User: Which sequence fits this backbone?
């Protein structure tokens, strides 16, 4: 059963009177039944984080585990991994990506790039070198990368140490506290990845205002589009049981709420798609954008080139790990590109295609936005599928690598699919 909007918005502004009204026996029973009293960070969906922290795995398995802790759009975890000796093959898990929100695979490829970056950083910290070949197969465009691990020297970099603490933070940030000079210097020193790059700009600059306006407008457009809203809602888990059942997706747990808000939200009856839309817009417009000192844009030369999108993902993850190492919180903001891609897929208007182009400010094509700052609340870890669940069995012949000279970009998926697959 879905709760009403009034109840849900009421919960968002939770205060003493609300809490008092929630202590009825019925509410307590419901809260216990829906898992809202449980430890919010324990159980099966969080095991991969513990395994990494405890160094439970070694060699290629540990490196692959680091890959699964990377960021991904909607926490869709669009990866398959195949391990054989010192070789890790990374494949696009097409059963697990949103087709209306990501008709050209832009976000999925960015997530796959993030997975590669975590594996390379993880390998280095675990005394291995990692040589990466992107799109190594002549026949399989879903074979995203091959990593060959070799001997290395111990290199526990700050980014390596941040792998287990990097979480998307959707809470308010201190808008009056700019990034420290050392954090800014470390971030801007990061090497571009291939033809991917980023720029950071203050939220109170004219560009910052333009960016925030575009994100709000795009969020409203996304949630007003029935197929996009339905798809985003499909990835939203409302109880601990739902989180445990899938070990992916978004939830109240990772929405930047306080413990009390999370427990209350999970105890209430499931919210409707419409209330989810209102909740997400409210958080974006009222909580996140006004409480941010710094925005950023990730861009590539050509957003139709899968190699550049994978490089953008590597850079995004590098940036987030470096930010984490400096105590700086980060949240990716993809709505402008979601709507721009939807416009392109439908071939109707170009409002957000043009806005994304204007925002990129001559840096190429914007592929993602982001916010950065010092968070007022720490972020929680998001669920992860266990490593064995994303391993491809070692069956059949190993794919033949393409010759290194043949580095042709592969075509984007041009036609949006008609129905979203079940996550
Ligand atoms: C391409 C891409 C787009 C994303 N877009 C958004 C976004 O619009 N809003 C948001 O809150 N998080 C966004 N994220 C962050 C993911 O939701 C997040 O990485 C995922 O839920 C896993 O959580 P974690 O980063 O805390 O591990 C995006 C991440 C990627 C890689």
Assistant:
């Amino acid at each position: 059963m879905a709760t009403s909007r009034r109840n849900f918005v009421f919960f968002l502004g939770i205060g003493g009177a609300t809490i008092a009204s929630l202590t009825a026996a019925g509410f307590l029973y419901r809260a216990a039944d829906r898992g809202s009293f449980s430890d919010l960070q324990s159980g099966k969906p969080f095991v991969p984080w513990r395994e990494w922290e405890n160094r439970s795995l070694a060699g290629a398995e540990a490196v692959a585990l680091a890959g699964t802790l990377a960021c991904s759009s909607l926490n869709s975890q669009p990866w398959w991994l195949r391990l054989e000796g010192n070789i890790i093959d990374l494949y696009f898990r097409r059963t697990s990506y949103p087709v209306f929100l990501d008709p050209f695979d832009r976000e999925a490829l960015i997530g796959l790039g993030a997975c590669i970056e975590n594996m390379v950083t993880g390998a280095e910290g675990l005394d291995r070198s990692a040589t990466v070949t992107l799109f190594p197969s002549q026949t399989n465009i879903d074979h995203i990368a091959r990593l060959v691990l070799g001997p290395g020297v111990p290199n526990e970099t700050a980014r390596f140490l941040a792998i287990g603490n990097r979480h998307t933070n959707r809470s308010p940030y201190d808008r009056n506290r700019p990034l420290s000079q050392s954090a800014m210097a470390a971030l801007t020193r990061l090497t571009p990845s291939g033809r991917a790059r980023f720029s950071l700009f203050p939220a109170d600059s004219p560009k910052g205002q333009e960016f925030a306006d575009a994100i709000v407008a795009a969020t409203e457009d996304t949630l007003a589009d029935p197929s996009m809203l339905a798809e985003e809602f499909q990835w939203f888990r409302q109880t601990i049981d739902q989180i445990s059942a899938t070990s992916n997706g978004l939830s109240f747990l990772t929405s930047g709420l306080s413990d009390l808000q999370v427990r209350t939200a999970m105890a209430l009856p499931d919210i409707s798609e419409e209330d989810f839309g209102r909740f997400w817009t409210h958080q974006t417009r009222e909580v996140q954008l006004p409480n941010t000192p710094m925005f950023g844009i990730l861009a590539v030369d050509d957003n139709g080139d899968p190699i550049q999108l994978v490089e953008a993902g590597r850079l995004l993850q590098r940036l987030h790990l470096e930010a984490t190492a400096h105590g700086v919180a980060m949240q990716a903001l993809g709505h402008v590109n979601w709507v721009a891609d939807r416009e392109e897929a439908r071939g109707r208007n170009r409002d957000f295609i043009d806005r994304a182009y204007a925002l990129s400010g001559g840096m190429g094509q914007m592929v993602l936005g982001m916010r950065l700052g010092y968070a007022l609340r720490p972020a929680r870890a998001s669920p992860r599928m266990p490593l064995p669940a994303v391993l491809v069995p070692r069956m059949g012949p190993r794919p033949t690598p393409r010759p290194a000279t043949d580095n042709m970009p592969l075509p984007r998926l041009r036609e949006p699919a008609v129905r979203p697959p079940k996550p």
Q: What stands out?
A: The longest strand covers residues 143-151. Strands lie at 79-84, 87-92, 128-134, 143-151, 196-202, 236-237, 250-251, 294-300, 329-333, 365-373.
